[in-house]
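Re: Re: token formats

Sure, here are both.
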Amino acid sequence: MHDGRGAVRRRAGARLWLSAGWLTLAGGAALLAPWIAPHDPLAQDLFAGRMPPFWVAGADPAYPLGTDSLGRDVLSRILHGGRIAFLVALIAGLATAVLGATLGLLAGFFRGWVDVAISRLIDIWMAFPPVLFSILLIAVIGPGLWSIIIAIIVIDWTRFARVVRAEAMGQGAMDYVASARVAGRGRISTLVVEILPNVLPTIVVLLTLEMGIAVIVEAILSFVNLSISTDSPTWGGMIAEGRTSVHQAWWVLVLPLIALFLTVLAFSQLGEGLKDRFDPVLR
């Protein structure tokens, strides 16, 4: 049994280090994109169109990952597209976590009519298909970075609310909560000081998973031209562009797809690793 727990801890540790390493590398590169990108991501050079990456014959050292059909540097566009992906993941993920976790805590701790009202709202909200709902929202409020963030918040808060509600109910039945009440601590104070710290690990795990989902949603909306301006580089937009010329310049499609896949996988594995690390049975 002990060896089994140790193996799980080692796997969780490997997931944490690998995923955190990639997210640190990709996030840092995205943050520093204006300074480390070799070219302007919007600059076009039709004479350098569809140059292959450095490991393919005929490559130009000035374009390490090649160019697209308009001669724009693929590496620079991936780096700048990462800025948008991580920005959406960070802002939308945090806002979604705050909204959903707050409602979940209120429903799980206060019970009664508060729980009934919030639970019914969650049931109604979850009846809408999330992707179609997001496209509808963007179509109504118009494309743009903040429109995407608002759409993600509006759609995904229920994920946090449901899980945190269940956790708050379980924590509310613990002896330490009863002791706090006997000691004269108020209900709001008990919720914030006693229950929230014990629910926080679950919220952190959900946050990492939500950030990966936000990256996917932004890429999907970019793919169908419902994200920010089509001139701005986004991973989804690059994938959509590369799809039309995959036989002539496969790297325009494959390279941003790899960046998207690794980033979403890293967020997912970071969440799984944190879940294993916070699991009280494994601890």
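Second one below.
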Amino acid sequence: MSELKGKTVLITGGASGIGKLMGELVLKDGAQRLIIWDFNPELLNLTVQEFRAKSFKVEPFIVDVSNTTQVLSTFNEVKSRIGSVDILINNAGIIVGKPFAEHSHEEIDRTMSINTSALMHLTREALEGMITQGTGHIVNIASAAGLVANPKMSVYCGSKWAVIGWSDSLRLELEHDHPEVKVTTVVPYYINTGMFSGVHSPIIPILKPLPVAQAIIQGIKKNKPFVRLPSIINFLPLIKGLLPLRIFDVVVGKWFGVYKSMDHFKGRTK
């Protein structure tokens, strides 16, 4: 079991949504310090004020995780000012939400850098301290879109497929070479945080943010390799492997309505 008491936790995209909720949960569970990375200075300032008003110890950093140079320099600042990170939660992510042919090259690069490359670069930096101190936990927020392709999510799906493959490969490497450092890959369905505003899901319920955040924190405590939400997501790899492609398309796309879930996508207004 990974203890939270007395730990230093870094959460990217931690000023809103499930990032903010997870931050508050780890602080309530006894984390010594929360380091929040976020791109939005207004939200970051509000969150820090809120947490500090509750006497929590919070260290904010304005970071664009799509900028690798900025990621590396900011983490070096974290190390010099604060020290090693015990638990890293790679939570920051974006989605464009339109057909692939309508994506700009900048949108493709930015989605892949924020959703995939940033996790790898930041984890690479954090691992050194975790391995040296003989303890640590990496949490990577992926998505059920990394298991099932979906129209109007092509680049997002690609980024999350990459996260799942990389994250579980990292788990296997660390279990062999440094078993004291744990990895948890989180694979949720749509979460009602505003990021997926306009999404319609007639059969599988859209997830509420707080239960998702609570499940992730429990997954950290119990050293779970995967946290999949809701429970039906656990069966997706089996169903996809057993059913012929066209039948899978009918079951998931037509019966469950997943392939039309993005038809009225709006996303965040800002």
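Helices lie at 17-28, 41-53, 68-81, 105-133, 154-177, 209-221, 236-242, 245-255. The longest strand covers residues 181-188.
- S.
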